[in-house]
Amino acid sequence: MMQPRLRNFVVSFAIAAAQAAAPASAMVGGAPASDSGLGASVITVIGSRGTFCSGALIAPDVVLTAAHCISAGTDYKIVLYDAARAPELRDVRRVAVHPQFNAQGIASHRASADVALLQLAQPLTKPLAALGIPSEPIAAGQDFVVAGIGVTRRGDGKSGGTVRAAQLVSTSQPGRLQIRLVDPATNNLREGLGACTGDSGAPVAQAQSGRAVVVGVVSWSTSANSAAGCGGLTGVTPLTLYRDWVLQTVRAWGARL
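Structure (tokenized):
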């Protein structure tokens, strides 16, 4: 039985998603809607405590998302949409958070094992995201694609709920613990493309051997010049150190990638 709080949240979310169906600008910054490629595997994750996150379907019944989207004592569902954008809820059987995750670290934009998995009660027939790790050496200027269901305008929940994708590039000194992405057209000097509320846990992909491979998840964002907000930096937790844990957990659940 769905808890009243979760049911109310879903109703509100459905209304917001319907109102967001009109053309909107972007993830933030003008990114287009994307229901193919990486976007086809994106999953909406909601929780009874107001969780609104993105994830990627990496097995028919397993979703990869961010650990900071998962909290104790919370019930989770995923939301699917039919052709008319009517929402349908699917049950989550169980969740797993990487044991080395540190919530305070992510809140301060420091590196942490911000990786979690949800196992669904029933498998889906949606396209699966290929799982990998970033190509090494990881250097500034490399191309990545981010796809999520977050808001297109910060603070406007009605602008979320549509999968949108943006191509960003790595900046600063990326590495195995954290990658910072930026819109190459604005370079964090003014607001541009980037993740925002609801894009936490969104898959971050890199082209490898001619296909898009999920190599990380979105952990945080900033506005231009690293101020609070969206459209500046997009912080990513790469899977380099955590892919083995993902594979082991999936196998322990009896699922197959």
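The first strand starts at residue 42 and ends at 47. The two ends are 30 Å apart (CA to CA).
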